């Protein structure tokens, strides 16, 4: 069943533009579940890392409160993503709509948190470096490190952290809005299910069926690489019983008549043989045993006698042909002698038993 295309354009969710059209036509329920699950884990880890950073000696006291606020905001984002898992699992339009707006808000909050953290990193450079140097004061007093070594290390550490913070800011900005775009597309699918790509069950095409012959007989034969345009195709499967291959049957101008069928099992019913004046001879019949003796026809063919071996019969045929060539069978006595039986029948015991 083909679905009709919607009359109105899709709702103006601007975040859908981040997804290609082919992706928006597939079911995004599982995608939203996976994204919400990993987003919740990521936000939970980042929030816990901010709380852990507040207890380090290298962190200035002025950054303790901002880091606490950032941790709370990330925990709120964790709760939003957990709600998104439940909404995607239920696939309810009101729940998914609420999750979409919460995900968009979460993307803005996460991006703002990273911007604040990067800004604090650059504006509080002096305090961050000073706190780092103070954390190594015990090692400097013991003579393990010098003041110049500690100062150089803390400045290099701040510089390397700057590159990492900028990379995390850019990555977080794009990935958060991309996840919100997926939530918007999923909401659009729930509100307009006709936009989904559906699989319509169709019968298999006949062009993939196994052919019953090399090529269709109502089409001209193809050109063979040997140049034999008039090569004979293989016999069709509808004529497996003895019909000879002919040019008329497999002519390229007209289709063959499908009249050949397998013969029914068993002997034919009575009266069929009489209605067929020209029966087809049996090719498996014995050519010697079923022939007539030809007696009275002037030298008919001999018949193999019961119990006679092939060599004896061949010898008798040779003698018969020799006598026929000499003209012995022209006389009645010669024919009687030639076709006389050589078997000896003893009737005395049977006659005696009958008399008794």
UniProtKB/TrEMBL annotation:
Keywords: Membrane, Transmembrane, Transmembrane helix. The keyword Membrane applies. Residues 217-329 are annotated as: Disordered. Residues 262-271 have a biased composition (Pro residues). It comes from the Eukaryota. Residues 246-257, 302-323 have a biased composition (Basic and acidic residues). The chain crosses the membrane at residues 31-51, 63-86, 98-116, 166-187. This is MARVEL domain-containing protein. It comes from Rhodotorula mucilaginosa (Yeast).
């Amino acid at each position: 069943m083909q679905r009709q295309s919607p009359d109105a354009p899709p709702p103006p969710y601007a975040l859908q533009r981040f997804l290609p059209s082919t992706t928006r036509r597939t079911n995004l329920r599982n995608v939203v579940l996976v994204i919400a699950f990993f987003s919740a884990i990521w936000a939970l880890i980042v929030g816990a890392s901010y709380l852990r950073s507040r207890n380090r000696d290298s962190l200035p006291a002025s950054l303790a409160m901002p880091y606490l606020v950032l941790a709370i905001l990330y925990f709120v984002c964790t709760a939003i993503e957990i709600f998104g898992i439940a909404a995607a699992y239920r696939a309810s339009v009101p729940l998914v709509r609420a999750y979409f707006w919460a995900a968009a808000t979460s993307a803005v909050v996460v991006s703002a948190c990273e911007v604040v953290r990067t800004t604090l990193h650059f504006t509080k450079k002096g305090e961050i470096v000073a706190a780092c140097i103070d954390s190594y004061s015990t090692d400097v007093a013991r003579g393990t490190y010098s003041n110049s070594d500690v100062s150089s290390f803390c400045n290099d550490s701040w510089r390397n952290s700057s590159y990492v913070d900028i990379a995390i800011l850019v990555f977080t900005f794009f990935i958060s809005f991309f996840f919100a775009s997926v939530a918007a597309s999923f909401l659009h699918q729930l509100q307009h299910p006709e936009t989904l790509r559906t699989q319509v069950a169709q019968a298999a095409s006949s062009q993939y069926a196994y052919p019953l012959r090399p090529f269709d007989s109502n089409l001209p034969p193809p050109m063979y690489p040997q140049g034999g345009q008039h090569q004979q195709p293989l016999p069709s499967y509808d004529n497996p019983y003895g019909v000879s291959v002919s040019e008329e049957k497999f002519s390229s101008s007209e289709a063959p008549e499908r009249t050949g069928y397998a013969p029914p099992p068993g002997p034919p019913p009575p009266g069929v043989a009489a209605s067929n004046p020209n029966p087809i001879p049996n090719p498996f019949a014995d050519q010697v045993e079923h022939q007539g003796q030809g007696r009275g026809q002037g030298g008919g063919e001999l018949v193999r006698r019961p119990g006679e071996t092939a060599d004896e019969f061949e010898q008798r045929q040779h003698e018969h042909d020799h006598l026929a060539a000499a003209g012995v069978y022209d006389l009645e006595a010669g024919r009687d002698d030639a076709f006389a039986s050589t078997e000896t029948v003893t009737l005395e015991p049977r006659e005696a038993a009958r008399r008794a």
